[in-house]
Each structure stands twice: as C-alpha cells, then as structure tokens.
Design a protein that fits this description.
Largest sheet of chain B: 6 strands, mixed
Shape of chain A: globular
Largest interface: A-B, 64 and 53 residues
Strand order of the largest sheet of chain A: 5-4-19-18-17-6-7-15-16
Largest sheet of chain A: 9 strands, mixed
Number of strands of chain A: 21
Distance between the termini of chain A: 56 Å
Number of domains of chain A: 2
CATH topology of chain B: Barwin-like endoglucanases
CATH architecture of the largest domain in chain A: 3-Layer(aba) Sandwich
CATH class of the largest domain in chain A: Alpha Beta
Structural class of chain B: alpha/beta
CATH topology of the largest domain in chain A: Rossmann fold
Radius of gyration of chain B: 14 Å
Helix content of chain B: 10-25%
Helix content of chain A: 25-40%
Strand order of the largest sheet of chain B: 2-4-3-6-1-5
Oligomer: heterodimer
Number of helices of chain A: 17
Order of helices and strands of chain B: EHHEHEEEHEH
Number of helices of chain B: 5
Number of strands of chain B: 6
Distance between the termini of chain B: 32 Å
Strand content of chain A: 15-25%
Chain lengths: 433, 125
C-alpha cells in the first residue's frame, strides 16, 4: 500500500488539494479528506472498456487507431462542427482543442454555456470585484451564499474556504463569522445560516435591487415586501454587510439559470459595488466542474473569448445566444459534434438533444453516460487527476496541477485530441494536393 | 387532480456521487425523482413513492414523488439530469443559457411507469 498526500481532487471547482489517497495494486482503495462526491470520483466507477464505432445502430468495439481515424474523418468532412465539453479535463487538452477548432472551422464551447455562462457575460459587462479563496478563509467574516447549495454541490467549500474554515484573522472559525443564505427553498446550507432569506422563484433581481438601494442609502424607496422577502429582512442583511470588515457573496445556478439570467449577476455585482461605499466586499461564482474555469482561461488567451467561440470565419467570433451550444443545436445548425469530458445527453434540454442525437457524435470520456446512447464514435480516456496529470484552475482562478495516482492503458484526453488533430491535418493536406 | 407549480432543478449529493455512474440503478434512484412539500403531495393525492407526472410547455416526464421539507407550497425540485431536462425548454432568450429553474409546470399522480435512461434517450432518436 502506498499513501499519497496532497492529492488534488478532480471533481468540483473547489479543487481541494489536501486529499490523502491510499493506492494498492494500482487501485485507489481509500480516500481521506474529500467530500462524499469527490471521494466517489476518486474511488472510481465502471469504465468504457474499449473504443467503439456505431455500426447498424450498435456500438462495435475497435482499436484506438480506428476510432481516431473515424473521428477525424467526421470532423474534417463537417461543415458546422461543434466541439463541446472540456470542463472535466485539463488545460493541456483544451489548448489542443482550440487548435482542432481552428483547423476545421468549428465552434468550441464548454459547459459554462449551461452553467456560469451568464456570469461570464455579466463580468464582461461590469467587472468582478473578487479575491482568492485564501483571502475568504482568512478575512471574510460575512459569507453570503446566493442561489447556491454547497452542502450538495461543493461539499468542502464551507469547511476549507468559508464559513467553517478557521482563518488567520478569524481563528474561531464559524464563531467569528456570519452566514447568510438566499434561496427559494430551505436547503441544508440554509439550515446552517444565521439568516435565511427565502425568495420567490425568479425574483432574485428584485431582491438584489432592493438591497442595492438600501446600501446606497435609499431605503425609503423599498416597499414592505420584495419578491417574497420582507423589508425588515433586507435591512438586516444590508446592515450585516455594512458592519462586516470583509465579506463575500458566492452565487450559484439559482441565479444564473433563473429568469433574468446574466441580468441577475450584473445586479449582484452592482450590490457588491454598493457595499464598497461602506466596507470591503467581494463576489465569486461557485464554478461547478473542476476545470470549467480553466477552459475559459485557455480559450481566452488562445482566441480572445472565454466560451462559445465560432472559428468558422477564419477569425474568432463570439456571440453567446448565437454561438452557444444549446442555440446551435436548437437551430439544427451543427452537422457533427465532438463531446469531451461532459454529458449533454444528460444535461442539455430535451429540445437540443433531439438534434444532437441525429448528427454524427464523437464522445471522448472515461465513463458511459446518456451521451453514449447516441454517440457514433466512443473513445475512452484516462481519468484526469487519477490516471493522468495536468493543469486546472480553481473557481477563484488559482492554477493547480492535478496528479497521476495510478497507471493506466487508456490514452489521456490530451493524447486523443493530439491524435485526432494530426489525423485531421493529414486529411486536409491530402485534400489540398 | 393536478396542481400548478414552479419546477427547479439542481445538484444533490447522491446525484453528484453517481455523475460517472449514470447508467446505474443508483443514479436512477438518485435522479428520477421529484421533491415536493407535504402540501403539494396532499393536493395531488400522492403518497411518498407514488409516481407523478410533471408536464410543462415543452414535454412531460414521470418521476417518483419524494416528500421533502424546506419547499414552499408550489415549488418542486427534480435533480439535474435527463428527467428534469425532458421538460426543460431550450430557449435561451438570446443569452445561451436555458432556463433550468423556475419553469411553469403541472403535476399529477399517475400510474404510468418511470422511464429508465435508455428509454428516455430513445424518445429523442
């Protein structure tokens, strides 16, 4: 048995880097320090056994070479290919993905499109007064989770970085801190809160506007009830914000996926700015996948834009709503898709899956999932952070290096994309002759 | 008898634990369900474990009812995944983001079975 310390967890945007893993006979046998969801990821699940190509409706096993060749043929022959996913893989694979997109004139998009895409739009509009999770841990005496439920989605977030963490200036941990939760339902996170604000579904924008008015000294314009929240509660939260020497709003899908979308986030960032007239305040999106942030970083430094980038014109074109995956699929524009490290079959609205299931789909993933049900080429890969290493970005933009814990015969995502890229280039150069 | 509700979707611990295990019975049990308040359960005459049909403008899906605390009357929750998405609109209102939360829906008790993943995906093909 070998004990490996300081393992970096490849599950959510917390990217905890203090996990202890025991490895025996080239298998992870014990995980300490991870949350329930991270532990499940590190312990592993049943895998796709072999590359496969769909023949007469059924997937037929084949070699890596055959699957890669078939994938390259599909992509090189497509007029409007989509390269989607990238959030549960490493930056090195994404970098090659952008090269592939450029080579074939594809749209490249990641899961932010159906996650924090609206946050990206808001940040481009009004900026992001933010900080690192280390600063939150050591300085933030007021933590606000707005439309986020870390007890389910980011298991160690409160313990490592926020409410429960013992910080340099807040050695008492939660005794020195206050927790406010804003949600439409009383989640487990809400049950821990010093103050729980239950907002009506789709009314976050109104509550944010009221809070902003109060922070700017205009409480007289706020009615007695806003979006199901009493004026008294809004005044109380505003006071908690004013009195905290350092505070933070963490926001989740509760605001990005509700009515208002990016407008909610713009308003939340403006609330943070309003708090600056009294104290130091920050705001941060609760990024989901461990490297959803990393894709946005890589895509930005490679193309100038963070997601939903259309390279079909020979230069980068960015217009979410037009070039985002859900919209492309609903308009039935794509004629082929490469899906890597994500599962639109499970997580896209039915309306967009309808088209995706009808076009040639190449799936690159360690695990079978609903997307596999209609994929035409399936290429299994190593699990990044368990069987392959690489760089990822934590939700606060801090880069960390995933570690390799066990050996594998599976190719890594990086190796598969590199092989497809070379094969595509070979096809293109033949066409050129 | 049916009831008008707002549908939200999102993560749960069991859903997250089975992210890489979606074709399993565990994932089916964790995700093909609908959490709702005792008041809404009573309104549609359902008991825990009964099947409920959730219908929106975009489709309908059958899931298991799970009575849960913390939900205001008229708000129901389906863990994110293929069952919730069977009734989610793809209209992003020009923002790229579908509205996964706060969807107008109707629920009623049903004797129809809950479809498994393979059956659900077949509906699209």
């Amino acid at each position: 048995m070998v004990e490996i310390t300081d393992v970096v967890c490849p599950l959510c945007g917390c990217v905890c880097d203090d996990i202890v893993v025991e490895v025996e006979d080239n298998r992870v046998t014990k995980v300490r320090g991870a949350c329930a969801v991270g532990k499940s990821k590190l312990m592993g699940h049943g895998r796709i056994k072999s590359p496969a190509i769909r023949v007469n409706g059924a997937l037929k096993e084949c070699s890596y070479d055959e699957a890669i060749k078939k994938a390259a043929e599909i992509l090189a022959g497509a007029r409007r290919p989509l390269l989607y996913g990238w959030s549960s893989t490493v930056c090195e694979a994404t970098k090659l993905g952008v090269c592939l997109a450029e080579e074939i004139g594809a749209v490249i998009d990641n899961t932010a499109s159906v996650c924090h895409g609206p946050s990206v739009l808001a940040i481009q509009d009004v900026g992001l007064p933010s900080c690192t999770l280390g600063e939150v841990k050591n300085r933030a005496s007021l933590i606000i989770y707005w439309g986020a439920n870390p007890t389910a989605a980011h298991g160690n977030h409160m313990k490592r970085y926020s409410y429960i963490a013992k910080g340099y200036f807040l050695p008492g941990g939660k005794k020195d801190k206050k927790l406010v939760v804003v949600d439409v339902r009383e989640t487990k996170t809400a049950k821990m809160a010093d103050k729980f604000i239950q907002v009506e579904p789709g009314k976050d924008y109104l509550v944010l506007s009221a809070l902003r008015a109060v922070l700017y000294g205009h409480e007289d314009v706020v009615p007695d009830n806003v979006g199901g929240v009493s004026k008294e509660d809004i005044l109380e939260v505003a006071n908690m914000m004013k009195e905290a020497p350092f505070g933070i709003i963490f926001f989740g899908m509760g605001v990005t996926q509700s009515r208002g979308r990016h407008n909610n986030i713009i308003n939340a960032i403006q609330v943070t700015r309003a708090a600056h007239t009294h104290t130091k305040f920050n705001i941060m999106p609760m990024r989901g996948h461990y490297n959803v942030t990393g894709f946005n970083q890589v895509c930005t430094w490679e193309t100038g834009f963070p997601f939903a980038v259309d390279l079909s014109r020979g230069f980068a074109w960015y217009n979410p709503g037009e070039t985002s995956s859900t919209d492309l699929l609903i308009r039935r524009e794509c004629d082929a898709a490469l899906i890597i490290a994500s599962d639109p079959g499970a997580h896209f609205p039915g309306e967009s899956i309808k088209h995706l299931s009808k076009i040639p789909v190449i799936q690159i993933d360690p695990f079978a999932n609903p997307t596999t049900e209609f994929a035409d080429v399936v290429i299994p890969t190593a699990v990044s952070g368990v069987e392959a290493e690489g760089s990822v970005y934590r939700m606060d933009g801090i880069p960390l290096r995933l570690r390799k814990l066990v050996d594998t015969d599976y190719l890594s995502d990086e190796e598969v994309i590199q092989a497809i890229l070379e094969e595509v280039r070979a096809i293109k150069s033949k066409e050129g002759e | 008898m049916g009831a008008k509700v707002k549908l939200i979707s999102g993560r749960t611990v069991a859903q997250g634990q089975n992210l890489d295990n979606k074709l399993s019975e565990e994932y089916f049990k964790a995700v093909a369900l609908c959490e709702l308040s005792a008041e809404d359960m009573e309104k549609i005459g359902a008991s825990p474990g009964d099947n409920v049909k959730v219908r929106t403008e975009y489709g309908e899906v059958v899931v298991k009812a799970k009575q849960s605390t913390g939900y205001p009357e008229g708000v129901i929750f389906i863990p994110m995944g293929p069952w919730a998405n069977a009734v989610t609109s793809g209209n992003t209102k020009g923002a790229g983001m579908p509205q996964y939360k706060g969807i107008d829906a109707e629920i009623e008790k049903t004797d129809e079975p809950v479809l498994n993943i393979k059956e659900l995906m077949k509906r699209y093909m």
